[in-house]
User: Fold this.
Amino acid sequence: MGDQFAEARLKIDRANKHLSDLHTAVCALPDAYGSTIERDANSGAQSIKYELLGEEGIRQNLALITGDCIHNLKTALDYAWIGAITRACPSASSKFSKFPVWASGTDLKAALEGVEINLASPRLFDLITAEIKPYQGGDDLLWSLHKLDIIDKHALLLPLTHAAWIGNIGVEYPTGDIVEATTGTATGPGPYYVPIFPAYKIKNNGKLSVEVIFNQGLPIDGAEITETLSLFSKLVSNVVQLLECVAAP
Assistant:
């Protein structure tokens, strides 16, 4: 078996590459929206319509990159845990070993005591139960990473929701004055409609800004995806370092 901690860091590096790819894809999202002016010939009502072109492929690509990043980070935790127990309490190691995440602190302690990690390595036992706390209500970021990894093993992490707002919309008043307007935030992939008074002339369709967030029903719903994955990565790096230190001779 190789150096599990070195391999864990390789998995983190791979996750960070996925994170960089995701950031690039999110930054490119505004250019994937087309804007058109729609007018009702009878009422004179008009609006600017912003629609994501190639929506299904874009959403699938974002979900795939997100899932790959999450999986590599969770695998890094598994590698580091195996490295820790192999050095600190080899009797607890098996081919089924993986980083322990449980529904509660009580369940976590019971699982570790079941393989006698508390006796073989009190330092590791205290680290995982009192400091790292990988359970719901302990470190909720670790818990969310664990749950998202499970979800992605069964289906793509869809739907991912876009939160968008439009700035620099140029309209000309009947007086001839030209002003710029900005909309509030709209959620969902669109299409988005911005109504413009019939008496106003649309001079500029504006510029779309987009965030991608975890949708309702997923752990940490409403959180911006790239920021959250960055937090996951920093957290996992810290946990790997802590496990390596406690397992050092």
Observations:
- The first strand starts at residue 33 and ends at 39.
